[in-house]
Amino acid sequence: MPSDSPGTEDGPGAGDRAGPTPATDPFAAIPDGTSADAAWLELSVVADPEAVEVVSEILSRVAPGGTSVEPAFELVDEGLGARVDISRPATVRAAIPAADRTAARAAVRQVREDLGHLQAFGLRPIGDLDVRVVFESDWAEAWKRHIGVMRIGRRIVIRPSWRRHRGAPDDVVVALDPGMAFGTGLHPTTRLCVAGIEQWADEGLLASGSARDGSARVLDVGCGSGILAIVAARLGAGEVTGVDTDPIAVEATAANARRNRVARRVRARAGSVPTADGPYDLVVANLIASVLVALADLLAAETRPGGRVLASGIFVDREPEVAAAFADAGLEVARRSAEGDWVALDAVRAPVR
């Protein structure tokens, strides 16, 4: 499902600049007593696409690690892909070590001077040089500040593993570290699936089934971080299998299952459907509409007659297409839920006649 990308949907530099960047000392951002050895100066310039090459060359003169270019983009493929928009400005970035302050200041001055010469020609729009201090720990940890504790449904609480939370007596708290895998609970498709699994629990569907202990067997197709598999296990499922074509997702699911003490009930492995382990009582598939259409028959085959398939990752304008494919596969939509432009369908596999 959709994942974060450098820049924003509006593209780097899409907004108006607020005038020239003051040539202040960037090292003023380093607290007193803090070593600059683990710090870098990030240099960035917003430039017209046709000026990117020459701006990159200027920055690369002082940056030992080279430069990176963040083009503007627009979302495609049901919100899960991006297409570069070459008509809008891009951002060129480079980093220089801050340990030698004299050398770093000289590098910044040189880049400002070279950019000034280029801007004087006025051939293509080129923004001012922006300089900021970045600590190595910032790169590893900064993204975590944007993920908080989230309540979904009546009693599901998704808690990032690095945050604390004092839950209510009836809360089901899931500690999650997504790492590089998809699924933090932030995306509407994930929330729709979590709420749908909670509804299954309320209806008693997780408490009974074909697992060895008499509870439900659940399949999570495209398990990502394992959030849906773990929620199903925490709400009563006895055996949960998560499959994903990404080995990083498989590792994340296994690690998060251990973190939530459900590793005996949740197992993850690389792959997709068919699993050769069906049929399951309940199947969850948080994918995208085109994949759900392609896998409709296989999802139905993984589900026992009378069992349920909860599918999300569906843009509202693709809902009829998914519903039709499910109907052709013998999956009758019994319930739908929506959040914004995203839809989840809860379908029942028709009994064998």
Strand and helix map with partners:
Elements: E1 39-47, H1 52-60, E2 67-70, E3 73-76, E4 81-84, E5 90-97, H2 101-121, E6 130-135, H3 136-141, E7 150-152, E8 156-160, E9 172-176, H4 188-202, E10 217-221, H5 227-234, E11 239-244, H6 247-259, E12 266-270, E13 280-286, H7 289-301, E14 303-315, H8 319-328, E15 331-339, E16 342-349
Parallel strand pairs: 8-9, 10-11, 10-13, 11-12, 13-14
Antiparallel strand pairs: 1-5, 1-6, 2-5, 3-4, 7-8, 14-16, 15-16
Helix pairs in contact: 4-5, 7-8
Please tag this protein with its features:
29% strand; 7-stranded mixed beta sheet; 353 residues; 4-stranded antiparallel beta sheet; 16 strands; elongated; Alpha-Beta Plaits; single chain; Rossmann fold; 27% helix
Characterise the protein shown here:
The protein is α/β, with parallel strands linked by helices. The chain folds into two domains: 26-143, Alpha-Beta Plaits (2-Layer Sandwich), CATH 3.30.70; 182-349, Rossmann fold (3-Layer(aba) Sandwich), CATH 3.40.50. The protein has eight helices and 16 strands. The chain has helices at residues 52-60, 101-121, 136-141, 188-202, 227-234, 247-259, 289-301, 319-328, and strands at residues 39-47, 67-70, 73-76, 81-84, 90-97, 130-135, 150-152, 156-160, 172-176, 217-221, 239-244, 266-270, 280-286, 303-315, 331-339, 342-349. The chain has a seven-stranded mixed beta sheet with strand order 12-11-10-13-14-16-15, sandwiched between helices. A four-stranded antiparallel beta sheet has the order 2-5-1-6. It has a three-stranded mixed beta sheet with strand order 7-8-9. α4 runs parallel beside α5 (227-234) and α7 (289-301) packs parallel to α8 (319-328). The radius of gyration is 25 Å and the shape is elongated. It starts with 38 loop residues before the first strand and ends with a strand. The model is unreliable at 1-22 (pLDDT under 50).
